[in-house]
């Protein structure tokens, strides 16, 4: 694949001070930065496997409970097909209710549209940005854990994943330096804020209250963050918090989802569980691994459960 342009060389959306990469992967592209996960990079990631240990990176589908952002809990029914055969089904299942991928059809940039400048609204007809394209491609590559929570603890820096704490582009570079790791094109960046561990400390009543007003640490939604991620040419950004960016956001800074999904085609994942992975990485002094995920192949879907593992 040809060398990608620098962020500051990307064109701006007419009328907005926002840069886009709509032509980088071709005028009809449907995969965005997942294109960077080519066979060469998959082979290189396979070479990272040392012990063969496999760690699930997904939360149970019924966490968070209650679901966040107004989503409803699903219903799971188990029933008999016959005397000796069982079956089951899910009703009211939100594909983005737990560990999840955000498809490129998830967020639009106002009237300028979705990734590639598509203006078709997927609630009326397909705009060809469903999650099935990533499912067909597969999301396999070199995972890099950026343990922000672990770095903060080691540095004696107060850090509460359930408080509004901004993580800047400079912080990301500091964490990489602390871990002795460098990003390479096509990496799948796994960002640990400690949110999963923090959420699990809440009791049932606290979880109900939290679902009505979630607050958590996350990335600052500014241009510096977008520039850092684009210029590193990462294939995906996968976080353990519920929205990648800090919540509540700041309208004066903007929306990181809008900067990254419709304009840069960056694959985002949320509510991934990196607690066990962080422990293994600290113990082994190695922050890279093989990352494998296969989203559900639901045509036209706006998202999917993560279906991800790390192979060490």
Largest sheet: 9 strands, mixed
**Secondary-structure-derived class:** alpha/beta
Morphology call = globular
CATH architecture: 3-Layer(bba) Sandwich
| Name of the top-level CATH class | Alpha Beta
Number of strands: 13
Spatial strand sequence of the major β-sheet: 1-13-11-5-7-9-10-4-12
Defining key terms:
single chain, 9-stranded mixed beta sheet, globular, Glucose Oxidase, domain 1, 9 helices, 13 strands
Molecular structure report:
This protein has 312 residues and is an alpha/beta fold. It has a single domain (9-311), classed as 3-Layer(bba) Sandwich (Glucose Oxidase, domain 1), CATH 3.50.30.50. It contains 9 helices and 13 strands. The strands form 3 sheets. A 9-stranded mixed beta sheet has the order 1-13-11-5-7-9-10-4-12. A two-stranded antiparallel sheet has the order 2-3. The longest helix is centred in the middle third of the chain and has 11 residues, at 169-179. The chain is globular, with a radius of gyration of 19 Å. The two termini are 27 Å apart. The model has no long low-confidence stretch (mean pLDDT 97).
Short account of what is shown:
This protein has one domain (9-311): Putative cyclase (Glucose Oxidase, domain 1), CATH 3.50.30. The chain is 23% helix and 18% strand.
List the helices and strands and how they pair.
Elements: H1 39-46, E1 54-56, E2 75-80, E3 86-91, E4 100-102, H2 132-137, E5 139-147, H3 148-154, E6 166-167, H4 169-179, E7 188-192, H5 195-200, H6 204-212, E8 218-219, H7 223-232, E9 236-239, H8 256-260, E10 267-270, H9 275-284, E11 288-293, E12 303-305, E13 308-311
